[in-house]
Structure formats: structure tokens, C-alpha cells
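hiii, so i know i said id send this last week but things got crazy w the move. better late than never?? heres the sequnce for the chain we talked about at the cafe, plus the structure i predicted for it. fair warning i was half asleep when i ran it
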Amino acid sequence: MSRYVVCLTFDHDHLSGFIARGLTSPTAISRGEYDVVVIPRLMTLLARYGVKATFFTPGHTIDSTPEAVMPYVEAGHELAHHGWTHRLPVTLSREEEEEEIVRGNESIKRISGQTARGYRSPAWDLSPHSIELLLRHGIRYDSSMMGHDYDCYYARQGDVAELKKPFVRGRETKLIEMPISWSLDDYPHFEYMRLPNGAVQQGLMNASAVLDNFVDDYTYMTRVCDFGILTYTFHPHVIGRGHRMMMLERLIQRLIEGGAVFATMEDAMGEWLARRQPARKAAE
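okay and structure toks below
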């Protein structure tokens, strides 16, 4: 029987993404603070349709604004790891990256009573050390890579990528990768940014056009798979504007009409594992 799982995920960066980029003017800080206004609206919307979501939240957000995090913890949504400072792992030393994981987990445990099972890298850029460190600290799944669209897979460690040499794949690990895509992320579509290096991220796209893209990715999954998991990524301070909240509600409605089942990332991972294990035994 066909089954199509949708994960609605929210990267609750608050101020951390702006501070990590050196954007600390009052206006930049206010853009991050807008998510405090949005979180109650998101809780109302998700409750209206009975949707459980996953919030990837930096430790900086948890420790700076716990009152904005508690509503989704208390509502039973999944709280997952998103670093502490929102710095990219690939820019850190191994020791700095491990500190981010440890400190972020401490923040998560203080507010929720347990450490994270899932992780998403800030800006989706893992380092050569990330997989080893995540496994060492009890992370079961990652959601930072893009090697599939509708299926999970086991993350590799030890790939060798050198110019003018064939690519050498490393070994599979126990870390489950739950892939994402920039095309299913609200940030590049909607967020206007003038960066310190002078670059401009245009954003500000028409929400209805983006909605069509988001829905079509789900519809295509139902055509090519009997079972699939599709992950959407949102940021409260981005999706929270009125016309985009209307788009998000229409997306939920369209997915329900298309037969989607909503799940947290952790629950979707559990279902993927349950389906994969009998297939592995049969192959043996």
C-alpha cells in the first residue's frame, strides 16, 4: 500500500544566523527577533491540522529566548540540534565543531529533558569530521545532505575528492541521512539579504509560484514511489509574514488532499528503518 510521509521542519535561528555573519546592527537583530511574534502563529496553524513538526534550534536561540522555544517543546514537536552559534561546521576546527555539538546538546537537554536525536548543519555544510562527531554524541540522523529526494540513506565517512583523480567513496556509517534541498527551503526564495561582502540575495519571490513548486515535488513523489519521505524547510522569521503564512496553510491543505501523512523527522526515520530492516533480512 502506498504511503507518502511529509516532514515540515523549521530552523529556528532567531538571532544566531545574523550574529554568525557579523550582522549585529539594530535592524539586523530585529529581523531575527521577529520569530518571537511568529512562533505562536505557527503553533496555532500546526495544531489546526494536527501536524507534528521538527524544530532545528541552535543552542544560542534556546539560551537567549527560551520562552520562544517552550511552546513547541510543550506541544510535543521534535526539538533537534542545529549547532550552538550557527557557524558552519566546515569553517571550524574539529575541536570547535565538537564544542558546538556538546554545548548545543546541553541547551537542548536543559529545556526539554533529553538530548537531540537529529541534527541539521547550519547552512547545510558539514565538515570531514561531522559524521564521526555526530555519532560519538548520540545523534541518530542528519538532515544536511542532498543525495536523494524521497529516500533516506546511510551517510558515508572518508570520501576522497581530489582534482584530476576519480572520486573514492568512503564507508557507510550508522548515521541515517534524511536529505533536503535548497529548492524546498523558504530562505533562498523569500529572504532578501545584503551581505557584508557586498553580495545581495534577492529573495522576495511570489509565494504562490513557490507553492506550486513545493506541491509539484510532492505530486511527483506519488508518481515515482510507493513509499517516500519529503522534507520541507522553513524559518519562522521568513515564513511568518502574512502572505507566506497563507501559502504555508495552503501547502498543508494541498498535501492533505494528496494523501500526505505528516510526521516528525524522528518518527519518519523510525518508519524508514522499520521498512528497511525486513528488506535487508530478505536480501540476506
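btw The radius of gyration is 19 Å. thought thatd interest u
miss u guys!!
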